[in-house]
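At your convenience, could you comment on the folded chain following this short note?
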Amino acid sequence: MASNTVGNSSVTIKLKKKIKANWPSLVRYPIVSLLVVSGLGIVLHVKWLELQLIYRSHFRHGQLDEEKKEFDVFLSYVCTSEEVEGVSKEACETTPKPLEVLLRQVLEDQWGYRLCLMERDVIPGVYTSDVVLAIQRSRMLICLLSAEYLSNNNAIFVLESGVQALLQKSALKLLLIWTNKAPAALIHPDLPTQVQRALKVLPRMYWTSGQPVRATSDFWKSLRKAMPDHRMKLVSLIKP
């Protein structure tokens, strides 16, 4: 209330409490956000190879040039026969029939796919260049993994070459078929780092000898779905 010679005057004043800025809270949120972004960046950096393989395994990456392909499937395996050393390859593929023999019969004889086999279609010579060229000329790489396979340097080279082709934006499909019940125990540290990480994320199937008929039937149905849609024509192999 104020008063002077003119008269009296009154006014109502409302006081408002000033809220102090909570500086620790204002600083905390940007720091937390920075830590979250940094953590995601580290995870992406560490798992980038696996993420690339997962993406390119499920989504065809690159163009499929049919003129450069001569085979539907490059079948990579190591003979699992328990015979003594020195046995012939023919004896290795006798009864009981291992999976590599069954695959050859089903894929090539029954389903009509053109297979690339090391002992039949790869010319002896400079091993590394022949294998890389054979993989490049195939639409799909199937590796039959076992303890014998993962301890064989030549077999590991085939698998590693397939992984590198997949990372190089190739249209190659890669499928792993484990023939052991506990595959994780077979991934030992002596394998190349790229192969170790690829074995954990690449498409896979499991085969156990002596499994029930229904399980066997499900295996072949799943394999049929994973195969290329179209088969290579034999006439494409004939060159002038």
